[in-house]
Amino acid sequence: MNKNTKVTWTKKGKGATLNGRGTTATLMADLIMENNNVTVKAEAEDFPPAEITFNLKKPTRLTGKKGEEYSNQSNIGFGITGYIIITVHPTSVSFSNCGIIEKDGGTVLDPKEPPPFKLNDHDPGNKGDPPNLRNELDDHVTLVMLFNTIAKLNGTCKWTWLSNYEATQIKKRIEQIQQTFTVTRTNDPEFPKQKNCSGTITKFKVPFSVKAIEQILSIFI
Q: What residues contact residue 125 under an 8 Å CB cut-off, 6+ apart?
Protein backbone atom coordinates (compact mmCIF):
# COMPACT_ATOMS: atom_id res chain seq x y z
CA MET A 1 0.00 0.00 0.00
CA ASN A 2 0.98 3.61 -0.40
CA LYS A 3 -0.31 6.75 1.29
CA ASN A 4 -2.96 7.22 -1.40
CA THR A 5 -4.46 3.75 -0.98
CA LYS A 6 -8.06 3.98 0.16
CA VAL A 7 -8.63 1.85 3.25
CA THR A 8 -11.92 1.17 4.98
CA TRP A 9 -11.56 0.66 8.74
CA THR A 10 -14.21 -1.09 10.84
CA LYS A 11 -14.37 -2.54 14.32
CA LYS A 12 -16.46 -5.09 16.18
CA GLY A 13 -16.90 -5.02 19.92
CA LYS A 14 -17.36 -2.38 22.58
CA GLY A 15 -14.89 -0.59 24.77
CA ALA A 16 -12.69 1.35 22.35
CA THR A 17 -12.78 4.17 19.78
CA LEU A 18 -11.33 3.61 16.32
CA ASN A 19 -9.87 6.49 14.30
CA GLY A 20 -8.80 5.45 10.81
CA ARG A 21 -7.08 7.81 8.42
CA GLY A 22 -5.56 6.53 5.22
CA THR A 23 -3.41 3.50 5.85
CA THR A 24 -3.10 4.19 9.59
CA ALA A 25 -5.60 3.68 12.38
CA THR A 26 -5.51 4.36 16.11
CA LEU A 27 -7.52 2.34 18.62
CA MET A 28 -7.99 4.02 22.00
CA ALA A 29 -9.56 2.04 24.82
CA ASP A 30 -12.52 3.77 26.44
CA LEU A 31 -12.25 4.40 30.16
CA ILE A 32 -14.51 1.57 31.23
CA MET A 33 -14.25 -0.89 34.05
CA GLU A 34 -14.96 -4.06 32.10
CA ASN A 35 -12.83 -6.41 30.04
CA ASN A 36 -13.66 -6.54 26.34
CA ASN A 37 -12.38 -7.84 23.03
CA VAL A 38 -12.33 -5.49 20.04
CA THR A 39 -11.57 -6.61 16.49
CA VAL A 40 -10.29 -4.09 13.95
CA LYS A 41 -10.63 -4.84 10.24
CA ALA A 42 -8.94 -3.12 7.29
CA GLU A 43 -10.20 -3.49 3.70
CA ALA A 44 -8.69 -2.04 0.52
CA GLU A 45 -8.92 -2.71 -3.21
CA ASP A 46 -6.47 -5.27 -4.57
CA PHE A 47 -5.56 -6.39 -1.07
CA PRO A 48 -7.06 -9.17 1.04
CA PRO A 49 -8.87 -7.94 4.18
CA ALA A 50 -6.84 -8.04 7.39
CA GLU A 51 -7.97 -7.95 10.99
CA ILE A 52 -6.56 -8.08 14.48
CA THR A 53 -8.22 -8.55 17.87
CA PHE A 54 -7.25 -6.55 20.96
CA ASN A 55 -7.94 -7.65 24.52
CA LEU A 56 -8.98 -4.62 26.59
CA LYS A 57 -8.26 -4.94 30.30
CA LYS A 58 -9.59 -3.03 33.28
CA PRO A 59 -7.43 -2.14 36.31
CA THR A 60 -7.98 -4.94 38.80
CA ARG A 61 -5.65 -4.39 41.75
CA LEU A 62 -2.79 -2.34 43.17
CA THR A 63 0.47 -3.39 44.77
CA GLY A 64 3.18 -1.34 46.44
CA LYS A 65 6.93 -1.64 46.99
CA LYS A 66 9.09 0.25 49.41
CA GLY A 67 10.96 3.36 48.32
CA GLU A 68 13.02 5.81 50.36
CA GLU A 69 12.44 6.36 54.09
CA TYR A 70 13.26 9.31 56.32
CA SER A 71 12.88 9.59 60.10
CA ASN A 72 13.86 12.18 62.67
CA GLN A 73 13.55 13.13 66.34
CA SER A 74 13.74 16.46 68.13
CA ASN A 75 13.21 17.57 71.71
CA ILE A 76 9.47 18.03 71.02
CA GLY A 77 8.63 14.89 69.06
CA PHE A 78 9.44 12.48 66.25
CA GLY A 79 8.32 11.67 62.72
CA ILE A 80 8.72 9.50 59.66
CA THR A 81 8.06 9.83 55.94
CA GLY A 82 8.08 6.84 53.61
CA TYR A 83 7.73 6.60 49.84
CA ILE A 84 5.87 3.82 48.06
CA ILE A 85 5.88 2.89 44.37
CA ILE A 86 2.37 1.72 43.44
CA THR A 87 1.86 -0.61 40.47
CA VAL A 88 -1.51 -0.81 38.69
CA HIS A 89 -2.34 -4.35 37.48
CA PRO A 90 -2.47 -6.06 35.07
CA THR A 91 0.89 -4.88 33.77
CA SER A 92 0.33 -6.55 30.39
CA VAL A 93 -1.50 -3.37 29.31
CA SER A 94 -0.79 0.32 29.87
CA PHE A 95 -3.01 2.55 32.04
CA SER A 96 -0.94 5.67 31.33
CA ASN A 97 -4.06 7.46 30.01
CA CYS A 98 -6.22 6.49 32.99
CA GLY A 99 -6.06 8.68 36.08
CA ILE A 100 -5.91 6.91 39.44
CA ILE A 101 -7.08 8.83 42.50
CA GLU A 102 -6.99 8.01 46.21
CA LYS A 103 -10.01 9.06 48.27
CA ASP A 104 -10.66 9.00 52.00
CA GLY A 105 -12.68 5.94 53.00
CA GLY A 106 -12.90 6.73 56.71
CA THR A 107 -10.96 6.14 59.90
CA VAL A 108 -11.14 2.98 62.02
CA LEU A 109 -9.93 3.04 65.63
CA ASP A 110 -8.60 -0.11 67.23
CA PRO A 111 -11.28 -1.01 69.81
CA LYS A 112 -8.71 -2.53 72.18
CA GLU A 113 -6.02 0.13 71.79
CA PRO A 114 -7.61 3.43 70.66
CA PRO A 115 -5.47 6.58 70.65
CA PRO A 116 -5.98 8.88 73.69
CA PHE A 117 -5.58 11.98 71.50
CA LYS A 118 -7.40 13.61 68.60
CA LEU A 119 -6.48 12.37 65.14
CA ASN A 120 -5.95 14.53 62.08
CA ASP A 121 -8.32 14.11 59.15
CA HIS A 122 -7.15 11.87 56.33
CA ASP A 123 -6.32 14.04 53.32
CA PRO A 124 -4.85 11.84 50.55
CA GLY A 125 -3.79 14.90 48.54
CA ASN A 126 -3.95 12.86 45.34
CA LYS A 127 -5.05 14.76 42.22
CA GLY A 128 -5.74 11.69 40.09
CA ASP A 129 -2.59 11.64 37.98
CA PRO A 130 -2.18 8.68 35.60
CA PRO A 131 0.60 6.13 36.11
CA ASN A 132 3.72 6.14 33.96
CA LEU A 133 4.31 3.77 31.05
CA ARG A 134 5.27 1.05 33.56
CA ASN A 135 1.91 1.50 35.32
CA GLU A 136 3.66 3.01 38.36
CA LEU A 137 2.51 5.79 40.68
CA ASP A 138 4.40 7.56 43.47
CA ASP A 139 2.86 7.66 46.94
CA HIS A 140 4.08 8.71 50.37
CA VAL A 141 3.01 8.27 53.98
CA THR A 142 3.78 10.51 56.95
CA LEU A 143 3.52 10.28 60.73
CA VAL A 144 4.39 13.16 63.06
CA MET A 145 3.96 12.78 66.83
CA LEU A 146 4.59 15.47 69.44
CA PHE A 147 5.50 14.34 72.94
CA ASN A 148 2.84 16.66 74.37
CA THR A 149 0.23 14.99 72.13
CA ILE A 150 0.99 11.47 73.36
CA ALA A 151 1.55 12.47 77.01
CA LYS A 152 -1.50 10.43 78.08
CA LEU A 153 -0.42 7.33 76.18
CA ASN A 154 0.93 4.51 78.32
CA GLY A 155 1.43 1.54 76.05
CA THR A 156 0.26 1.17 72.44
CA CYS A 157 -2.46 2.73 70.30
CA LYS A 158 -3.57 1.92 66.75
CA TRP A 159 -5.77 3.35 64.05
CA THR A 160 -6.36 2.78 60.33
CA TRP A 161 -7.11 5.08 57.43
CA LEU A 162 -9.09 3.48 54.62
CA SER A 163 -8.05 4.57 51.13
CA ASN A 164 -10.36 4.03 48.16
CA TYR A 165 -8.52 4.02 44.84
CA GLU A 166 -10.63 4.89 41.79
CA ALA A 167 -10.25 5.37 38.06
CA THR A 168 -10.90 9.12 37.91
CA GLN A 169 -13.03 9.29 34.76
CA ILE A 170 -15.23 6.38 35.83
CA LYS A 171 -15.44 7.17 39.55
CA LYS A 172 -15.57 3.48 40.30
CA ARG A 173 -13.43 1.88 42.99
CA ILE A 174 -10.58 -0.38 41.98
CA GLU A 175 -9.50 -1.43 45.46
CA GLN A 176 -9.58 -0.35 49.10
CA ILE A 177 -6.20 -0.19 50.84
CA GLN A 178 -5.59 0.05 54.58
CA GLN A 179 -3.02 2.48 55.99
CA THR A 180 -2.38 1.41 59.60
CA PHE A 181 -0.63 3.48 62.28
CA THR A 182 0.86 2.13 65.51
CA VAL A 183 2.32 4.39 68.21
CA THR A 184 3.90 3.22 71.46
CA ARG A 185 5.08 5.04 74.58
CA THR A 186 6.45 2.95 77.45
CA ASN A 187 8.60 3.35 80.55
CA ASP A 188 12.29 2.63 80.22
CA PRO A 189 13.18 -0.05 82.82
CA GLU A 190 16.65 1.41 83.36
CA PHE A 191 15.98 5.13 83.20
CA PRO A 192 12.91 6.32 85.15
CA LYS A 193 12.97 9.79 83.58
CA GLN A 194 12.88 8.41 80.06
CA LYS A 195 10.09 7.13 77.82
CA ASN A 196 10.71 4.84 74.86
CA CYS A 197 8.53 5.82 71.90
CA SER A 198 8.02 4.42 68.43
CA GLY A 199 5.80 4.85 65.41
CA THR A 200 4.98 2.54 62.51
CA ILE A 201 3.01 3.10 59.31
CA THR A 202 1.99 0.19 57.09
CA LYS A 203 0.42 0.64 53.66
CA PHE A 204 0.28 -1.90 50.83
CA LYS A 205 1.87 -4.22 53.43
CA VAL A 206 4.95 -1.98 53.33
CA PRO A 207 6.13 -0.93 56.85
CA PHE A 208 7.97 2.25 57.85
CA SER A 209 9.18 2.65 61.45
CA VAL A 210 10.83 5.18 63.72
CA LYS A 211 12.06 5.02 67.33
CA ALA A 212 12.50 7.94 69.70
CA ILE A 213 13.40 8.72 73.30
CA GLU A 214 11.36 11.17 75.34
CA GLN A 215 13.19 12.76 78.25
CA ILE A 216 11.04 13.61 81.30
CA LEU A 217 12.45 16.84 82.68
CA SER A 218 12.28 17.67 86.35
CA ILE A 219 11.79 21.30 87.36
CA PHE A 220 12.88 22.42 90.84
CA ILE A 221 11.59 25.69 92.30
A: none
Alpha-carbon span 90 to 71, nearest angstrom: 33
- The closest of 169, 172, 162, 166 to 203, measured between CA atoms, is 162
What's the whole-model pTM score? 0.81
Q: Which residues of the chain have pLDDT under 70?
A: 31-33, 169-171, 216-221
Residues 75, 59: contact at Cβ < 8 Å? Answer: no
* CA neighbor of 140 nearest in space, from 206, 72, 210, 197: 206
Q: Work out the mean pLDDT of the chain and round it to a whole number.
A: 90
Residue type, 101: I
Task: Considering only CA atoms, give the Rg of the chain.
Answer: 26
70-127 confidence digits (pLDDT tens): 999 999 999 999 999 999 999 988 888 888 999 999 999 999 999 999 998 888 877 8
Q: How many CB atoms lie within 10 A of CB 105?
A: 19
